[in-house]
Automatic annotation (TrEMBL):
Signal sequence region: none
Domain EAL: 1-253
Species, as recorded: Roseateles oligotrophus
Span of the entire protein shown here: 464 to 716 of 756
Name recorded for this polypeptide: Putative signal transduction protein with EAL and GGDEF domain/DNA-binding response OmpR family regulator
């Protein structure tokens, strides 16, 4: 309960910040975007999202937190556009709670308009399980987001129970191969079979594919050979505060 009221105040007090993990295209050898990940600066310490996102989800605080994250990501995209010519997108993780709102698309529109960035400056990540859990709300929202140019990425892909038939009808742009498959690449034959299948599926559906949790050169090599050139993971960079991302932007844009 104490944590709950502290989290409630954290947003007003400016204690919530976004860190950004670069997304890399290894073939083009450049950064092609970033994923925003929340952190809570509490008494000189950085509380990782695993320690407060679940509570935020339970209490509903995830809604104002996510609304703030969308706005902050738009602000950051504008700053990077002005200072570094950044023209890629920042991905924001959206919980299914956000799709229950009829004004999600309007909120995103207001965020990008407020900072004068195009809608494609914001990309949304929704986990495969959240997507399937709430299709009734998610599908119409995805279509409206797609119409205004906000791209959707399916996070933790391969861990859920999505019907492939359904997926092909959804206006999504990218699938993100879950890190559990990446972790075992080059170790178990099953993992490379799954990754091969996901890449083939994505290609057949005209989707981009990105791998998360890439930690070793070996994983990078296998992914690249299998046809996945976009990656994210500790091999390239952990999630960084914005000023450290700027070292990447200064080099690669
Ligand atoms: O940053 P880290 O690797 O510790 O993230 C841990 C978990 O918290 C991940 O599952 C991530 O998706 C989730 N998470 C981080 N930031 C956000 C956020 O802004 N919104 C939501 N919904 N989840 C987040
Ligand atoms: O899928 P999700 O949005 O939850 O992923 C974000 C989480 O993954 C964050 O907690 C981030 O710190 C973590 N992460 C990012 N890169 C790596 C990596 O290479 N290895 C591992 N184990 N975790 C990573
Ligand atoms: Na994510
Ligand atoms: Mn993920």
């Amino acid at each position: 309960l104490e944590l709950e009221s502290a989290l409630h105040k954290a947003l007003e007090r400016g204690e919530i910040v976004l860190h950004y993990q670069p997304k890399i295209d290894v073939r083009a050898a450049r950064m092609v975007g970033a994923e925003a990940l929340m952190r809570w600066k509490r008494g000189g310490k950085l509380v990782p999202p695993g320690d407060f996102i679940p509570l935020a989800e339970e209490t509903g605080l995830i809604v104002p937190l996510s609304e703030w994250a969308l706005k902050e990501a738009a602000r950051q995209a504008k700053l990077w556009q002005l200072n570094f010519g950044f023209a890629d997108s920042i991905a924001v993780n959206l919980p299914s709670r956000m799709f229950e709102r009829s004004d999600l698309v309007e909120h995103i529109h207001q965020c990008v308009s407020a900072y004068g960035v195009p809608h494609r400056a914001i990309q949304l990540e929704i986990t495969e399980n959240n997507l399937m859990k709430d299709l009734q709300n998610v599908i119409p929202a995805l279509h409206r987001l797609n119409e205004v140019g906000v791209e959707i990425s399916i996070d933790d892909f391969g861990t859920g129970y999505s019907s492939l038939a359904y997926l092909t009808t959804l206006p999504i742009s990218e699938v993100k191969i879950d890190r559990t498959f990446v972790r075992d690449l080059g170790i178990t034959p099953q993992s490379s079979a799954v990754v091969t299948a996901i890449i083939a599926l994505a290609r057949a559906m005209g989707l981009r594919v990105i791998a998360e949790g890439v930690e070793t050169l070996r994983q990078m090599d296998v992914l690249h050979r299998l046809g996945c050139s976009q990656m994210q993971g500790f091999l390239f960079s952990k999630p960084l505060p914005p000023e450290e991302v700027e070292l990447w932007l200064a080099q690669t844009v």
